[in-house]
Write a structure and sequence with these properties.
By secondary structure, the chain is an all-alpha fold. It contains 17 helices and three strands.
Length: 401
């Protein structure tokens, strides 16, 4: 009876701890939905403290800890499909008054382990991701949110980005295949990206502080099938990147994922900081990566919003920039397809469905389309940089036409 009493007390304590953690986490999540002021304070003050330790622990490993944990989780889930029914059967063995105690003990600890794994995922996803969707936006905090952005502003920003990209295309180093590559080691590139983000931290305080090394993903071929350049793991606080993608995508991708590490969860804002950090760097390779990261979004908006008679007189994207503005080359796609276990179309559809659901559930009503909202932030950026009446000149040229 004493043993039974201790066991019952242990179960009650365990359940109470689980309930308390879940209740506190859910309460914070609900509060974040209802108070931007609290969420802004949390992102600026508490979030760096909570995430600093796991980020530094993960940084001790050269590879992605999150990727290993995901692979281990899949393996454990498969094993559980066999283990749970076996343990259930074993605990019923023997006479009806004395079941198999060893099997019962293993079953109890197995269930507790599974329970805390799920709790850890829920807590880290909530504190390091879901709550942050409800913080104030960059535009709300640093730019004027009123008024419409005119065509002349779009034309000016697009022309500036294209002109800079065209010029930088001839300045960056290229390998034997003609690909734009960084003139240095990966470690040096990582440091350049950290410096670029810390510089942004002088304007945006939540971007200051510690940055770990970004992590290359071993399963980058599978990642490529999802059309992913990078990924943020909230449960290990790691910024991960695709090693298969065209090399010049790397700096903007790393800075994009670094912004997630600092609590910038909205994808359009992460795109914006990937752009801003890179173009304000003193390194031409980072600058080129930054301009390329938004040129496609701007081009699409120009085609939709600017009349043909104006477009024909605008700055044209050079052939070299077009060649560099790719996710994967044809050769890289061939390698991806060779290693594919599942069809790329199937993997991409599944990834898009998951991402769309995740975004809409967290209040991002336009889902994946929200990525393209980076155009509005880029226009705000150039509008804030205009000190010589450049936009008025563009306006006059458009209306003269």
């Amino acid at each position: 009876m004493k043993w039974m009493g201790k066991q019952k007390t242990g179960i009650n304590l365990h359940n109470s701890c689980v309930f308390a953690v879940l209740l506190l986490t859910t309460g914070l999540h609900i509060l974040s939905w209802n108070s931007k002021a609290f969420t802004d304070w949390y992102r600026l003050r508490l979030f760096p403290v909570l995430t600093g330790i796991p980020a530094r622990i993960s940084d001790l490993f050269s590879g992605s800890v999150g990727e290993i944990l995901i692979a281990a989780g899949v393996l454990v889930a498969v094993l559980e499909l066999f283990l749970v029914p076996v343990l259930a059967w074993k605990t019923r063995q023997g006479n009806t008054h004395k079941p198999d105690a060893k099997a019962a003990g293993i079953k109890k600890w197995n269930l507790r382990f599974a329970c805390w794994v799920l709790v850890y995922i829920y807590v880290t996803e909530t504190l390091n991701c879901y709550m942050l969707y409800h913080a104030s936006t960059v535009e709300e905090q640093y730019y004027s949110t009123g008024g419409e952005q005119g065509t002349e502003l779009l034309v000016r920003a697009y022309s500036e980005v294209v002109a800079k990209a065209n010029a930088l295309a001839g300045q960056v180093k290229r390998d034997a295949k003609g690909r734009a590559v960084f003139d240095g080691t990966d470690a040096q590139l990582y440091e350049k990206c950290r410096q670029a983000m810390r510089k942004q931290g002088e304007v945006y305080p939540y971007l200051s502080g510690y940055y770990p090394d970004p992590k290359p993903i071993r399963a980058s071929h599978f990642m490529s099938q999802q059309y992913l350049l990078g990924i943020y793991f909230p449960f290990t606080m790691e910024a991960n990147y695709n090693t298969v993608m065209y090399p010049v995508n790397m700096p903007a991708t790393i800075c994009h994922e670094y912004s997630h590490l600092k609590g910038i969860i909205l994808e359009d804002e992460a795109n914006y900081f990937g752009f801003a950090a890179c173009i304000e760097s003193d390194d031409p390779y980072l600058q080129y990566s930054g301009y390329l990261s938004v040129i496609g979004y701007l081009s699409r908006q120009v085609r939709e919003s600017v009349p043909q008679e104006i477009r024909k007189d605008m700055e044209q994207v050079s052939g070299q920039v077009i060649q560099d503005d790719v996710f994967l080359t044809e050769e890289q796609w061939e390698r991806v397809e060779e290693k594919a276990v599942l069809p790329t179309e199937t993997v991409n559809k599944a990834a898009n469905a998951f991402l769309e659901t995740n975004l809409t559930m967290n209040g991002v009503k336009d889902g994946i389309k929200s990525y393209s909202r980076v155009v509005r932030l880029v226009l705000k950026y150039y509008e804030s940089q205009d000190s010589g009446g450049v936009f008025q000149k563009v306006h006059d040229k458009i209306h003269k036409k």
